[in-house]
Amino acid sequence: MSRFLGLSIGIYEKALPSNITWAERLVLAAEAGFDFVEMSLDPSMERLGRLEWSPAQRRELRRAIESADMPIRTLCLSAHREYPLGCADASIRERGLTILRQTIDLAVDLGIRIVQVAGYDTLPDERPDEHSRRRYEDALWQGTAWAGARGVLLGLENQEAGYIDSPTTAVSLIQKVNSPYLQLYMDIGNLVVNRRDVRAEVAAARGHLVGIHVKDARPGVPRRVPFGEGDVPFAAAFRQLAEMGFCGPVMIEMWNDDRDDSAAVCAAARAWVENRLLEAGFPTA
C-alpha cells in the first residue's frame, strides 16, 4: 500500500515488458511496490483487440488480478490519436465512438475505475477548427452518458497536442458537460511540453482532478525523458497539489521498451517520485 495518505501510486503497462502474460506483469508491479497498474489501449491491433476479449478471457484477467492482489485501476485510452472524436471523416469518428463505448464496457468487466480520454479532436494532418471541436464535444457528451450509465469515470487528459492542451481548456469543457462522470486526469509533463505555467494550471484543476499522470518532459519532448533529466518543476507542481489536498491515483508514465531491468527501473522511478512527494509535504500514513 502507498505510504501516503490519500494517494495510490500506479505504473503504466508500457513501463513493464510486453512479452509476458498479464499475470506476470501484475506480479512484477506488486514486487516493484506499486498499488495498481494502468492498462493501455493504444491504436495498435494487439491492444485494440482487447475490446473483443471473450467473457472467458475477461474472467481470466480478473483471476490474475485477484491472485496478484494488484488491481488495474485506470485505463489510458490513447487509440483516439488515430480515431479522433472530432475527425471530419465520419467513418473515423464513428470508429472512435465505438472504441470509447467498448472501452467503458471493458472497464466495467475488469473493475477499472477511471478511463482516461485523450483530447485529440483531429488527425495530425487535419486542420482543427470550430467544427472539429464541436464534433469532439458532441462525442464526449455521448461518451459521458455511456460512462454514467455504467458507473465509470471518464478523465480528460491534457495532451501534448490537440484540442485539450491544458487543464484550463479541459475544465472549461468539463463544466459545459456538467456531469460527475466527466472529470480531469491531468498530465503534469504535458504542461511543460506545451510551455504552460505549471503551478497555475495545477491550480486550475481544483475540484475536477481524479488522477494525475507523472512523467518528466521538456518543451516539445513528451516521452522517454528520465526522471530528473527534464524540465518538469515537480516541487512546484506537487506543492500545489498538496496545498489543494489532492487525493487520488498518481500514475507513473514510462516507456521502458522491454528492457531486461524494466521492473528495477520502475521501482527506482517510484522511489524518486515518492521522495518528491515527501519534499512537497504530502502526509504519510
Q: Could you name the key traits of this structure?
A:
285 residues, alpha/beta, TIM Barrel, 8-stranded parallel β-barrel, two-stranded antiparallel sheet, 10 helices
Poorly predicted ranges (pLDDT <50, ≥5 residues)? none
> What would you give as the CATH superfamily?
Divalent-metal-dependent TIM barrel enzymes
Strand order of the largest sheet: 1-2-3-4-5-6-7-10
Determine the strand fraction and express it as a percent band.
15-25%
Major sheet description:
8 strands, parallel, barrel
- Number of β-strand runs: 10
Provide the residue-averaged pLDDT.
Answer: 96
CATH class: Alpha Beta
- Give the tally of structural domains: 1
**SSE pattern:** EHEHHEHEHEHEHHEEEHEH
Please state the structural category.
Answer: alpha/beta
How far apart lie the N and C ends?
10 Å
Share of helix among residues?
40-55%
Could you tell me the CATH topology label.
TIM Barrel
Question: How large is the count of helical segments?
Answer: 10
CATH architecture heading: Alpha-Beta Barrel
Compile the SSE list and pairings.
Layout: E1 7-12, H1 22-31, E2 36-41, H2 45-48, H3 55-68, E3 72-77, H4 90-110, E4 114-117, H5 130-150, E5 153-156, H6 167-177, E6 182-187, H7 188-193, H8 198-204, E7 209-214, E8 216-218, E9 221-225, H9 234-243, E10 248-252, H10 262-280
Parallel strand pairs: 1-2, 1-10, 2-3, 3-4, 4-5, 5-6, 6-7, 7-10
Antiparallel strand pairs: 8-9
